[in-house]
Amino acid sequence: MSRTTAWREGPETMGPRAPRLPAGGQRGRGTLVATHRDPSRPGRGRRWLALVAAALLLLTGCGSGATGDGGSGPQPAGSSGGTGAAGGGTITIGINADPPNLDPAMSSALVDRYVQNSIFDKLYDLDENLQVVPELAESLPEISDDGKVYTIKLRQGVTFHDGTPVDADAVVFNLKRYLDPDSARYSELSAVERVEKVDDYTVRIVLKQPYSPLLYTLTDRAGMIASPKAIQEKGDQFAQHPVGSGPFMFESRIKGDQIVLVKNPNYWKEGLPKADKIVWKVVTDDNVKVVNLKAGQLDLIDTVPAQALADLRSNPNLKVDIGPGLGFQGIYLNTQQAPFDNPHLRRAVDLAIDRATLVRVVFQETADPGYGPFPPSSPAAAASGEPPQRDLDAVKKALEQGGHPDGFRFTLKTATGPVTQQVAQVIKDMLADAGIEMEIQQVEFGSLLDDTDNGNFQAAALGWSGRPDPDGNIYPWLYTDGSQNDSRYSNPEVDRLLDRARQVLDMDQRVELYRQVMEQVHRDAPYIYLYYPKNVKAYSAKVQGFVNYPDGIIRTENLTKAP
């Protein structure tokens, strides 16, 4: 999965972030706000409560007939309510950011994956219980006894949207492309030694050493197979004209507004897709998305503000679905730039935040307090650890150890959005109680990704949509030069443990290794884990076939819309 914008990949989730290219790859308990308010700063507790009231007021003006302010709300696209020959109609989906890159080799955002999943088939996919199932592969792979050779047999008769065959040559071409160090997939496949064609519909992947996450890795972008012909013809422009073999074909795009996909009439899954057209409508304000869903201008929205849940649930024309998620949200601290090159100051920030209160104030039932990379749905959940109780005396001690007994100042960069602003403000007030001054700087999501990739920040609010295998939530973030390690964190012992966990097949042994990693990481605090977003989707009662998968990806092939 991908990075998400500050507080954006859950309820106003942190949007998927663009990974930095490698140099070579509930449960916290908390107490009421008032019990943690510093008596020397009366009124802080009231300020937090005022934020709750403000959040509720955000939605009071959202009448069902409005379209948002300044024309920012989505307008009907194409034949939004119409039906095609198969009666599937057009499904218009509101998403919280403009997908940065639709090329699987370079993509790093969750919103990219929404669209890509409709355009590209993968070697394998996940079912709604996160079990691996074959897609372009006709069966699960044959794995050698030493765990280093995977032999994959492909379905025959599948073609790309341009009519060329999906065969072993195409799969080898794509996997070799992902193995290029310039690819965003490089670190995910760094254990691969070589990929080779066995016959026209058989591929062999040979690993340098056993790599337990490989099969799950092939259920995501590293397993997406694009048309080699289109890649070679389009070159750097392939992301603007993506060609896969999936249920829908790319038709058009208006940057910052919408992406239109049309039904693949030659799709290999009989009877699918059911809809005639999918329109991905970019609406960055969650409250505007709610308004337009109620007005019938959107059929499904990817995120829902917690304060809107009761209103949506009371509407007989709408449905709300809350399911478990795989990701986390938090704050990068730049360990190579003052003030956070000082580990004591990083620890002070970590100890000053009351995660349970943050979730209760902003997210209610749509998130869980978090203290690590593994949410409750992860098989490695126990390794994350329990969030520490907020202790201002411990914060003061950390500040003294860091040489700043009277506190310090820093700037937090976040993406734009009302919920993003609210989360940042709650954290700002919590840190102020400890004498730490935090300035909030909101920037456009793409700029935020660029800034973190280039080290142009002190602190940045970005999270991760999550992966079904625990490795995907921890290795890229904490390994030296990992693709998501924008904190620039490096610890040789952490690297050793993470490498070992990749080679162990037994999950209990892996969890113990991750537990040891997190003990060290909690001491070093390069990244402040805050909460685990749940997958919250809302949609029209006319939409049928929607399933809320834990990976957060909206599967479109079974969607249909009643007249």
Automatic annotation (TrEMBL):
Keywords: Signal
One Pfam family of this chain: SBP_bac_5
Chain spans, region Disordered: 1-45, 369-389
Residue span, Solute-binding protein family domain: 131-484
Signal sequence bounds: none
SUPFAM superfamilies (UniProt xref): Periplasmic binding protein-like II (SSF53850)
Protein name as annotated: ABC transporter substrate-binding protein
